[in-house]
Amino acid sequence: MARKLSIMDSGWLMMETRETPMHVGGLALFGVPEDAPSDYMESVYRYMVEVDGVCRPFSQKIQSRLPGRLDAAWVDDKNFDIDYHVRHSALPRPGRVRELLALVSRLHAQRLDPGRPLWESYLIEGLEGNRFALYTKMHHSMVDGMAGMHLMQSRMASSADERLPAPWSGEWDSRKKPRKKNVAVAAKSGVLDGVGSVRRGAGQLVDLLRLPKESNVKTIYRAPKTQLNCRVTGARRFAAQSWSLPRIKAAAKQHNGTVNDIFLAMCGGALRRYLESLDALPAEPLVAQVPVSLRSADQAEGGGNAITTVQVSLATHIASPLGRLVAIQESMQAVKTRLGEMPKSDIDAYTVMTNMPLSLGQVTGLSGRVSPMFNLVISNVPGPKETLYFNGAELLASYPVSLVLHGYALNITVVSYKDSLEFGVIGCRVTLPHIQRFLDYLEASLGELEAG
After folding, report:
1. Cβ distance 105 to 237 under 8 Å?
2. Region 85-113: what's the mean pLDDT?
3. Full residue range of the structural domain in which residue 359 is found
4. What pTM was computed for the model?
5. Can you tell me the distance from the alpha carbon of 228 to that of 280, in angstroms, rounded to the nearest whole number?
6. Quick one: CA torsion of 51, 58, 168, 40, rounded to 10 degrees?
7. Which of 4, 7, 163, 168 could bond 58 through an S-S bridge, CB–CB 3.0 to 4.6 Å?
């Protein structure tokens, strides 16, 4: 049975071009078990492809008959080919992380086949330190980044001895817990509630747009145009690194803040350094668009997108690291207060209205040529606190690989795993040179906060 895409999910399809593929991904690093046989990697690959059917959403593709995919719906792919979606690769010697990130950069730049289910997974062997990697990408219309990470991690084992089906195996359909049905409401009441939500959501947006531009409370169209906000090419560069979560928690405690405050301050400091190195730092603060999940962790298998977005000042115009942190905290607190006062229906309406200009800018080609709605996307995705295993191999690290758009050439996403924060930085290879330097700038920014 066909399942129609929501307005938000369809928007990701309409925005996609060769230069802006609309998929998100994850790069997971695993340790080969010490007692593994010589054919271990081949056995992992067989585990991934020899499955008893394929579950949703992995089994579904897009069906559409109208231009612009306005009638797009998910349908089961009757000609599903697991060998197309799951691929086996190897790194050239010496198999350094540098070569791995270069490979992921190339793979992430390639669009998914619109005639097939919109996902691919690559088993990559030959990584130094007796490790291997798994890079998986899924279209944003299929799952948002947060749900995608939760979905993959929820299908890993909690011990080396436990054996679970591959994440896309049809066996997961029989393991799903029955979802509670929503209580039906009268159609007339639903229409009235919807109209009210749109009106209140519009009121929230108007209130924010009326605030002075120099206010720490941000909304769309309150960002300066920078080198981050140009047209992009299809080439990508991906950089990744782990930071100690106890170390970041200590810095947060030192400054009476949260882990997210320190994360945003690290990003603000790194962006200030990066733009200074290009002699392109604006006098006004950069503004980050920050996705906020509206679903619980156990709702990841529902598919689609369940997020809103808020705008936060990164205070890049402030030279003092501590002054920058305070400004970021004030901006984030204002966001939390406003969201906390809004019911979910109003948040949904507000989300559609604030993201519609983004979709229209991509479709019409205006993005990257006019003033930006914000400067970049920064995400913080909570992850598992316990050790996970994939067919007996321990998960060592899990890095998010997000997307960039015309006018928004950089994305920084972090995922927590056990005692680490796993940073994934991706940008347009041509528009933004030397993206890998961000890792050094992030470390320097954290060091400044610790010294303060």
Report:
1. yes
2. 96
3. 187-384+402-451
4. 0.88
5. 10
6. 80
7. 168
